[in-house]
Amino acid sequence: MLQLTNGDVSETLTWMNELDQQYKFTDPSYGMGDFINDLKENGFITDVPGSGNIPQPTSKTEQSIRKSALEEIFGKLKKNSVGNHKTTKSGLGDEFNSESRPFQFGDTLDSIDMTSSIHNAQINHGIDEFKLYDEDLSVREREHKSSSSTVLMIDISHSMILYGEDRITPAKKVAMALAELIKIKYPKDTLDIIVFGDDAWPVELRDLPFLQVGPYHTNTYAGLELAMDILRRRKTSNKQIFMITDGKPTCIKEHGRYYKNSFGLDRKVITKTMNMAAQCRRLKIPITTFMIARDPYLQQFVREFTQTNNGKAFYSGLDGLGDFVFEDYIKNRKKNIR
């Protein structure tokens, strides 16, 4: 409910009181007042001083919502699909593989394969008197675990709530689940989240559950431009952009003014957006588009956009969005994106 009310605790509790009156969630021994007190005592909501004691959600609540989203969206997938993402290359990592090589200056002591080293010493010097030299030492190779930098773009234009279909809530849930997944399983990865409407701007993880759609057009160009600026500052070699949207680009900003056209595919807007996709390709930043729409002309645009970037596209319903994002993230993390 906090997600539906964009983090407004007072409005949420008002709704819950109305639902309690209708469906009788509570009983005389435990009322809504007791529930509110429990929320405060357990650190889920707090009264902010100087705000008229208006209750606010805490960081504990935000983390709880993210964990719930992770369990809801990704819980049904196979457990062994989540792991430490390895590449086919050897290097610094946490796990040894089956390969070995001669010791080199700079190798750590814990990487020495003592069994193989002693065996080499016996072969090289005999077994009558034990001798162990540098050239006898054998080192076990480690699996190289790559790290990845991802920017997740979320469309918050007005179309995300048009026609009686709530598309922003599933998008937020996917973003929260992905953030929690990375935090738990891949702590060396980075995830930046940005939203785009008429403009684009980054959002903090704590604000993610309470995002709301605005009266915006869709400035995909601005979103991609900001995503590229963020990824340029990341030191990892593996970089990617995930974009969740339900429509076509309808807006760009030129000389401080907005150029907008919601009717069909505007050539001026599309050209600038395609140019940005091509620029991402030159920088070897693939874009994966998750399109929550099945209109043929929109799919045609996405196909051309994907071809320009050499990225990928998925046409997903709201129910399958989480599966697509999760599986593609895992797949991309199993290889170096270069």
Automatic annotation (TrEMBL):
Domain VWFA span(s) in chain numbering: 150-248
Entry-linked Gene3D superfamilies: von Willebrand factor, type A domain
Domain of life assignment: Bacteria
Protein name: VWFA domain-containing protein
Organism field: Cytophaga hutchinsonii (strain ATCC 33406 / DSM 1761 / CIP 103989 / NBRC 15051 / NCIMB 9469 / D465)
